[in-house]
Specification:
This protein is mainly α. It has one domain. About 85% of the residues lie in helices and about 0% in strands. The protein starts with 5 loop residues before the first helix and ends with a helix. The mean pLDDT is about 85.
Length: about 70
């Protein structure tokens, strides 16, 4: 039986956020993505919200799995 783990889900979300951010930064270095994309207030707000939610899920899973 496959068990659901909040710790694993939080880790995957954190990894995906890091991957998306690094892709955007590489795109900025190569000139394919404008600087305005990652400095826009909505991007920062949404990225921060998803980061905080991912951390909460990861910490909740860490405490629940103990």
């Amino acid at each position: 039986m496959i068990s659901f783990s909040y710790k694993a889900m939080g880790f995957v979300f954190l990894f995906l956020l890091g991957f998306i951010y690094s892709c955007l930064r590489i795109g900025q270095l190569t000139g394919e993505v404008s600087e305005a994309v990652t400095t826009h207030i909505l991007f920062k707000l949404l990225f921060s919200i998803f980061f905080i939610i991912s951390l909460i899920i990861f910490i909740y899973g860490w405490k629940k799995d103990k």
